[in-house]
Amino acid sequence: MTGSVLPGRPGNLTADQEVKLRELWKATLQVFGVKGLGKPQDLEAEQTGSGTATPDKKAKKKKTGMFRRHKDEDDDGASTDQEDKYGQSKEFQQVLATENPENLRKAFWSMVKHDHPDGLLLRFLRARKWDVHNALVMLIATMNWRMKDMHVDDDIMKHGEGQAVIDSTSTNANVKKEANDFLAQLRLGKSFLHGTDKQGRPMCFVRVRLHKQGEQSEPSLERYTVYTIETARLLLAPPVDTAAIVFDMTGFSMANMDYSPVKFMIKCFEANYPESLGVVLVHKSPWIFQSIWKIIKGWLDPVVASKVHFTQNLAELEQFIEKSHIIKELGGDDPWEYKYIEPSAGENEKMSDENTRQRLLDERASTVKEYESTTQEWIADMENRASLQQKRNELAGRLGSGYWQLDPYLRSRSIYDRSGLIREGGLIQYYGKPETENAPKPLAASTQNGPLPAEHKADDLD
Fold this sequence. Notes:
about 45% helix, 16 helices
């Protein structure tokens, strides 16, 4: 990896792309109800010479405005645009009509975490080919999905593995099952984060043979998927802003095939985590997977499908990953093995420190307001735009470092914190032995990698 900033990212934008970014910021801040920008329905899209639209289309866009019904929506507000296969245009209109703008604002800044705010918005712009309206629709629909559908930050990441261990002994049968189903996937190592590919991208390995259809509930599968993606986001740092997924198809059979979680994963990456996939490697897929792939490929956006590569042996895998970074399980030289470390007593004690958490939240809120006000100046003041952008970058850096101070007060510790991959202050250490001396006592006794579900054999974990 060269370490250079890729096109379309903060610090490497064309003049036209910078205009699009300013347009999207203006629209986004209006949706969030930030003072000084008017109401969302009052915003008319700025017209530029950028993009691929024809002059006639640009003129029509100027008449319709950013927040009015899109030209590809029918009378019910449903989109007829082929790009909107998840119905986000209709969801966007519903959210604008019913949701408190401040809730959307909070959801956005919660999603930013340690990322550069520009970097997050640019993901949506790139995913929608620099169409500001479509990027805004996708962004707001994603905020709604995080808040209302998945409760990403106020449940999945907040409660995490520690709460699951507690819930696994609940007297409520449904709560107990969901917790045990979630933990079973972690203990098995159905998927795990480890190492980097040749481009420096964090890798997620998925051992497909460990999934058995119907073994875990659909909600627990979705929770586990989002939990893994959100944790992987914490590993990203410029210039690396995408991840690699390796599907290990060793030992695959039709008993492992389950279309529902596959569809959910596709939707996550296409609709809610845009521009997050760098490469997908399908390793050692048997011949029976060929017909399955034809079905799955039909569901994929062509851009996503183009990132999928099939490898059958170590030499082919080495085209994407250094042999020293390929785990021994796949024939490489990296001796690392997945071993689940149970949550320990007291590992989330900082989450009970309400005073410190509130102080850090107040500090972050102050920085966010300063970033928003500086962004408003940056949108309007052409003469001082360069200095204002520098100030925005400094504030983004403050938000990034401030997030890692806040992180242990908001996010339950994970296997990746306990193993030493994610360290204090956001330091990421992919390789090297974690510090295991004086390890805290687990919350619950467990066997190595946890108890196996009935249908699994111990050999599955080899």
